[in-house]
Design goal:
about 290 residues; Undecaprenyl pyrophosphate synthetase; six-stranded parallel sheet; disordered N terminus; binds farnesyl diphosphate
């Protein structure tokens, strides 16, 4: 996909735009031909990292466990953990923009787990308010970057305002053809798999599917992530070595990158580091 974009960029926009990029003095030699225009406007240190990345070998789908907001707030002496969540929004924005600029197909962000409902009411309410605000504030950004918003998890669990804003933003962006930003909201992987199991049991009982026809693809098609490629890369911030009930089925062959960086400090450079590490991995999918 990235290569298609590069071809389109080279073909459709042609020399005029390439000259403009040159005249900005931004692009390093040979990068114009390899990367979409937006990435060429990054600061030089990040553009240098592009030289270590192969646009043809980018992960199609990156999933992120955004962890460490509370610790970030505490380390800065804030009494309120919510300050960490607020700071985390900027990391969400920059990571989303970077992923779209690189031409990834899907970015899934674990924004609120089913288990997170058991946090103190004040924190849950603050997170839902932040979510509703984010869903409106980012509309221009989503449209400007041709991003389609989607969600996984239990839509109906969300408070009315967050649910309505989510629905509106998903409808607004539904015609966009670029990256999918997939928010995991009130999401739990065991819950998702349990729902799929019930669906399959019902379909079997009603004669829509025979037991012998149930396959891995049947399950793929009933998961909340139906139609999306499985994550190639799972990133977890804050150094915790856990999966936390996230995409248990879908990450069967994902590469895992754990960084000690706390989520609010996870910016473009850290994302590029994760992608460079990913491209250094030998993915065998069980083969030798
Ligand atoms: C984990 O950090 C983070 C969360 C439970 C929520 C993630 C939310 C955001 C990044 C902001 C809102 C996102 C969107 C998309 C609007 P933690 O609170 O568990 O941190 P800790 O482990 O240091 O306590």
């Amino acid at each position: 996909m990235a290569s298609n974009k590069v071809l389109m960029f080279n073909g459709a926009l042609g020399t005029m735009f390439r000259r403009r990029v040159f005249s900005l003095g931004n692009a390093l030699p040979d990068q114009q031909a390899r990367w979409p225009g937006a990435a060429l406007k990054w600061p030089e240190s990040d553009r240098r990292m592009l030289n270590r990345l192969d646009p043809q070998q980018l992960p199609a789908h990156v999933a992120v466990i955004m962890d460490g907001n509370g610790r970030w707030a505490r380390q800065r002496g804030f009494m309120d953990r919510i300050r960490g969540h607020e700071a985390g929004i900027e990391a969400v924005r920059e990571t989303t923009r970077t992923a779209a600029e690189l031409g990834l197909q899907v970015l899934t962000l674990y924004a609120f787990s089913k288990e997170n409902w058991s946090r103190p009411d004040k924190e849950v309410q603050a997170l839902m308010t932040l979510l509703a605000h984010f869903l409106v504030a980012e509309r221009d950004e989503l449209m400007g970057n041709n991003i389609r918003l989607r969600m996984i998890g239990r839509h109906d669990d969300l408070p009315d305002k967050a649910r309505d804003k989510l629905q509106e933003s998903m409808e607004l962006t539904s015609g966009n053809s670029g990256m999918v930003l997939n928010l995991a909201l009130s999401y739990g992987s065991r819950d998702e798999i349990t729902r799929v199991t019930r669906d399959i049991a019902r379909m079997t009982r009603e004669g829509q599917i025979d037991l012998s026809e149930i396959s891995s693809e049947t399950i793929d098609g009933l998961l909340d992530t139906a139609g999306l490629p499985d994550p190639d890369l799972l990133i977890r911030t804050s150094g915790e070595m856990r999966i936390s009930n996230f995409l248990l089925w879908q990450i069967a062959y994902a590469e895992i990158h754990v960084t000690p960086v706390l989520w609010p400090d996870f910016r473009r450079t850290r994302f590029l580091e994760a992608l460079i590490e990913y491209q250094g991995r030998d993915r065998r999918f069980g083969r030798i």
